[in-house]
Amino acid sequence: MADKTNMPYTSAVLMELQRKANILPFNVMHKTLADTEVANLPIPANTTVLAQISTVLDDPEAFPHPERFNPDRFLNADGKTFNATAVDHLVPFSLGKRQCAGESLARMELFLILVALMQRYTFSVPKGGQLPDMTPVYGGTQFPQPYQCKITLRH
C-alpha cells in the first residue's frame, strides 16, 4: 500500500470502475420523518425513499460523457492529482450516516486485488471474440452481460 500514492492512474481506474460498474445501484431505504420537499416535489411524512446512486454516478455535469469509460476524468491535467469535482461525486458506497461502514477497507482491498491481477495476468479479447456489451443487467444488484475474456499468465 506504500506505493499507492505513486500510482494515481491506478486509483483513477478503480474510481472509474466503481462509477461504471457499481454493484449496488440503489442506496438503502429511508423514511421521511416529516413532510419535506426535494427539487420542488412534496414528499409526505412516512414516505419510503430509495436513493438511486447510479443517477449521481451517471450525472453528465459531474462526469462529462458518462457513458464512456474514462479514468482520466478523475485526474487533473498533471496526471498526479485528483479532480475534486469528480471525486466528490463518486459515491458508490453511499453518503451520510448510512454509508458503507467498510468503505475504507473495501477501497484498500480493491486496490490490492487490481494491482495483483495486473501484475500477474494479461487480459484480452479471445481470438474471434468481441468487446463485451457494457449495458448492465439489473436485479437486486447490477452485473455485466455475459462475455468472454482471455487471461494469460505473465512471465
UniProtKB/TrEMBL annotation:
Supply the name of the protein: Uncharacterized protein
Query: Which co-factors does it depend on?
Result: heme
Q: Where does heme bind?
A: C100
Lineage here is: Eukaryota, Metazoa, Ecdysozoa, Nematoda, Chromadorea
Keyword Chloroplast listed? The answer is no
Output the InterPro entries linked to this UniProt entry: Cyt_P450, Cyt_P450_CS, Cyt_P450_E_grp-I, Cyt_P450_sf
- One MF term in GO for this entry? heme binding
Kindly state which keywords UniProt assigns to this record, in alphabetical order: Heme, Iron, Metal-binding, Monooxygenase, Oxidoreductase
User: Organism, per UniProt?
Assistant: Plectus sambesii
Give the UniProt family note. Belongs to the cytochrome P450 family.
Where does the source fall among the domains of life? Eukaryota
